[in-house]
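Contributing new records

If you add data, match the layout below exactly. Sequence lines come first and carry their own label; structure lines follow with theirs. Keep one chain per record. Anything else will be rejected by the validation script.
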Amino acid sequence: MKNDVKASLMLAGAMLAVALSATLVRRLGFVDSDTVTRVVIGLNGLMIIWYGNRMPKAFVPNVRARQVKRVGGWALVLSGTVYAALFAFAPIPLALTFGSAAVIAGIAVTLGYCLSLRIRAKTA
C-alpha cells in the first residue's frame, strides 16, 4: 500500500513538472498553446493507461474481484490509449469529444461487467 501511494505521488509530481515545463517553453516562444494543451491533456491518457496496467496486479483474495480487475484494467488501458492517441493526432475538439467518450466507454464496460457478475452470482 505504501509503495502504491509513493508511486502515485511520483506520477503526479512528474505530470506537474511536465505541465510547468511545457508552460515555460510556451512562454519562451518555442511552442504554441495548442502543443501545450495536447501534451498536458495527453498525459492524462498516459496516466489512465498506467493505472489500468497496475489495476490487475494488485492482489485481492476474491476470485470475482480479480476478474473485475482484469476486465477493468484492459478497459482502462484501451480507453486511455485511444484518449492519448486522439490528443496526439486528432483536432482538439474531435479529440475532446471522442477521447472522453472512450474513457466513459471503458468505465461503462467495467461497470457492466461488475453488474453481469453480480446478476450471475444471484441466479446461481
